Amino acid sequence: MSIANANDKPNFLFIAIDDLKPLTASYGRTDAITPNIEALADNGVVFQRAYSQYPVCGPSRMNLLTGLRPETNGILNLSDTIRNVNVNVVTLPQKLISEGYVTAAAGKIFDPRNVDDNYDSQSWSVDYIKVSGDVDKKTADNLAVKAIDAEENRFVDGKITNQGIALLQQFAEQEKPFFLAVGFKKPHLPFFAPKTYFDLYDANEFDLAEFQQLPTDSDASYVDSNSNELIKNYNPAVGQNYEFGNITPDQQRDLIHGYYASTSFIDAQVGLLIAALTELDLADNTVIVLWGDHGFHLGDHGLWGKHTVLEQANHIPLIINVPDSIAHHTNALIESTDIYPTILDIANIEIDEHLQGVSQLPVIKQEKLTVRNGAVSQYRRNAAMGYSLRTQNYRYTEWWNTNGSGIAYTELYDLNNDSDETVNIFDAEVDREIQQQLYNLLRDNGQGLELLQGEPKDVEPLIEEIAVEEESPVEEESPVEEESPVEEESPVEEESPVEEESPVEEESPVEEETPVEEETPVEEETPVEEETTVEEETQTEQELKGEEKSSGGSVFWFCWLTFMASCTRVLTLVKETKYMNRNIKK
């Protein structure tokens, strides 16, 4: 199939992997054993700079499936359901049904806590069926890592693979084009996998993160997640606990071992799916999209889990394999929000104007080097929403007080010279023009970011606006090269995913970790359903809970903001101007 042929409707196999970092060879890493993902990368387009919009499972998935940022689609936690907060939203699979596709899902696509008991039936032509594992449910002793000597088809992800293959077999007998979404739950905590995949690695050979403290000149109340996802929900051994700030080297290697073993297990499942696609003669007309819902801290900054706006929590793997297209690596920035319009574009379906993502088909076809000049991620903490802009060279974050009183804190990292984000250089000796460019670029990419939208429209720029240099039309492929300091290209809108994670093995009741991260027990979900990874919600929901959970609160804040608008307008301008200029060299 050629993507230039407007008469063909391609099939789509969308593979979602929970908590998967870009640690495969196609991303410059050599320690993970993932031959099947690498084979897919060799034949597809590898996006080296893909970013999630919200580092929590539920929101990150909903942002991709709606093409809208979290504050627009309404899902920023693990308890609200999409049809309750956004009745008329049209999901990606729902849109495809209206265009003649048959759609189905196996495993974790939506986070089950954010949809109804029918898994949002409007989205699927084929009834969704939950599956559970027999041997990989969270244990009563809450172990974080466990090698299990059992057949793969007894694990929830093995059963998801079998279900996905059965759906492919069903579609092979039909004439309609299909969209099949298969969602794997590992490598989400707990790191349970078949022993054979643990045996692929020697734990003693894993390198620990070099930088294990918070960035210099950073404010922990905004930057630090306290590793709640791990520490509040799991234990290193029976009768033992993880100690925040003091996870021992042996414990760290054990956790990394479990993460890598789980990743290799999922890689094998990906291989089985793609092999079935080929055996059923579907490969030549099927676009494969492999996506990680958000990143994961494996000890960097002393953190374990997601729930930050730092690079490691939001940088994700994304591979798009379109038959007959030229395989290549690209440094083009892309958000999860962009996947919805990109799939429509590949299928020759008109893209709805309300979508907040942008089609990346011109990048896939190598007609353009890039279509956006920044990717935005966000997270709520400390009574503030952090809006984090990733450009080719920098990560710039503004933390906005949710009470409408303006910017509380700002971060800036020079990723060209400090890829580990060790020093916050905002308020330091940084070129004033670069800071102004980033300030402007965040606003250029601000669609769907509610607090930014509330800024006074007549505020004068802090300094004269500087034209942003576009990247050279050449290949941007090298994963590391970043182009001009601020080179972000076309300001495309992005949404911020919220991902709350549900412990991969959703079935295990244990996995729900409700208590953990978000305090609200709600999110845990049925054991089978996704293992309710409580953990994620802990942090995320917790913060969201207090600030945006009740509808009554929304009405209150609306009234409050209306009242305070005139009072705070001048104050906000003065504060922001002073803050941006403080200690900056002219």
Describe this structure in words.
The protein has 586 residues and is α/β, with parallel strands linked by helices. Helices cover 31% and strands 15% of the residues. The protein has 19 helices and 16 strands. The strands form four sheets. Strands 1, 2, 3, 5, 7, 10, 11 and 12 form an eight-stranded mixed sheet that branches. Strands 13-14-15-16 form a four-stranded antiparallel sheet. A two-stranded parallel sheet has the order 4-6. A hairpin with a 2-residue loop joins strand 13 (375-381) and strand 14. The longest helix has 31 residues, at 249-279. The relative contact order is 0.19.
Rg for CA atoms: 22 Å
In oligomeric terms, what are we looking at?
single chain
**Average of pLDDT:** 83
Task: Give me the secondary-structure category.
Answer: alpha/beta
Question: Helical proportion?
Answer: 25-40%
Tell me the major beta sheet: 8 strands, mixed
Give unreliable regions as ranges: 457-586
- Number of E strands: 16
How many DSSP H or I helices? 19
Terminal CA distance reads 56 Å
Shape category? globular
Strand content: 15-25%
Sum up the structure in keywords.
eight-stranded mixed β-sheet; disordered C terminus; 586 residues; four-stranded antiparallel β-sheet
Briefly, what is this?
The protein is built from 19 helices and 16 strands. With 586 residues, it is an alpha/beta fold. α6 runs parallel beside α10.
